[in-house]
Write a structure and sequence with these properties.
With 562 residues, the protein is α+β, with helices and mostly antiparallel strands. It folds into 3 domains: 15-180, GAF domain (Beta-Lactamase, 2-Layer Sandwich); 204-333, Beta-Lactamase, CATH 3.30.450; 441-562, Heat Shock Protein 90 (2-Layer Sandwich), CATH 3.30.565.10. It is 50% helix and 22% strand. It has 14 helices and 17 strands. The chain has a 6-stranded antiparallel β-sheet. A 6-stranded antiparallel β-sheet has the order 9-8-7-12-11-10, with helices on both faces.
Length: 562
Amino acid sequence: MAVENTRFYEETRRKLAQLAALQETSRAVVSTLELDALLQLIVQQATSLLHAEGGILNLLDLAAREDEVVASTGSTEKFMGIRYSLEKSLSGWASLHNQPVISNQLREDPRAAPYDGLIETELRNAAFAPLNVKGKVIGTLVVVDKYAGDQDFTQDDLDLLVAFANQAAAAIENARLFRAEQRRAEQFRVIGVVGQQIASAFDVDRLLKQMAHLIQESFGYYHVGIGLVEGNEVVSKAEVGADQDVYDSIRIKLGEGSWGWVAQRGEVHLSPDVRKDPHFYIAPGTDLVRSHLCVPLKSKDAVIGVLSTASSRCNAFDESDVIVLQSLANMAAAAVENIRHSERAQRLAVLEERSRLARELHDAVTQTIFSASLLAEALPEIWENNPQEGRRVTQELRGLSRGALAEMRTLLLELRPSALAETRLEDLLRQLGEAASGREGISVNVAVEGQGTLPPEVHSAFYRIAQEALNNVVKHARASQVTIRLCFTCAEKENPKPPTARSVLLVIRDDGCGFDLARVLPDRLGLGIMQERARAIGATLTIDSHPGDGTQVSVLYEQDAA
């Protein structure tokens, strides 16, 4: 009885020690939510709990029907990253049957055949416990030891390992959920950052490269690539990651490879294992790519490009990756189209401006210079026959030359907007007057009262209104006299509202044929354009005209005293 009591006491003490060790190890594994660190901690604690030589933690990849060693310690560290078939390994048997198992004769156990590395070492016995979460196996926890007769793994050891595995599985699930939430938060952050980049993007290639870098760095993808459709090909525009040199500037025909397939069909293509995917293009030097996700860049109903990510693990992408990547692709597509529209608009604006300048040169400068050249050719003969007439023609030639020079200066200012803003308004008005005078021989008088500096937008608006008014005089008024008055400190008497702050008044008056305001449409004679420019700066534009009595255009801008 004493012997039995002693044995019972020793057994009880051993179990209490095991329970204490189990409680301590369980407390350790639930203290962290960082997944990679947790996996390694679980293996270390399991090895210590059973006083084993080494440990392995496998996670299940049902899509590939494989186990992958994601953590190892002790004598099994060299097996990190190895994958085994579920149907041909003890770990796979434990996973598929959701049952723990012991093998104290690994070398003779046919189920352990794929563990060639283990069999070739001194390790001889192993215990396998499924990692079970809500009835679903997510992997196996394995401890291994040297064969030493009475140190074989027992049922008590297996029960202890199973109890710890249940705690470890719950901790892994919590860490996965925590990582998923972190990843979701990072995904939203990246979407926000991409939105900010898009708002300030003016170059397509630069935008796509910035997006590729941001996606790859934020999510840790093995590789990120973005391509745009050009003709019947998809051309790489941005490659970031391990294989960027291989795929840089690559061209893939529509319908070929995953890029060509997505670009042609406009559908998402998810490949859990690229080695089983006939659409995936495996370029030389890309053997480490195992899974791939590619989404289309769509603008309205047209596919303009593709965005793809690759991983070195099978089944690395889930539905959240598809949703986030498609959202980023939609943003990229909208940005690319906006930039392209802007570039087209800029090109059209340049062409229109060139056409306008060409018309101005033809209608004004060319004709003025042509008239001046005719007078210059005839001048010697006229002077010889009638010096008085020669002096008159010389004066006319001088006026034409000055007008042509003023026209050229005006056109040069149009080509340099900064020069337009830097030139004093009174000088600009005199230049417009000289141009009009040289073009039609009209006498233009410019009077300036006071002095001051206008805000840039007001400066520009006054110049444009004066330019439009003089164009109307030249084209329609048949006037002989024009007066331009710029007053920095006064307002017209006719203004019903006396200025309560500093006022600037511009008046263009001609003695031409005039017109009936009631019979002229608002969009004729540039009246609408002048009104819009005046409203844009908060000024008041007044037009006074009567048939046979000329026209007066007045612009009043009241500037706050502050």
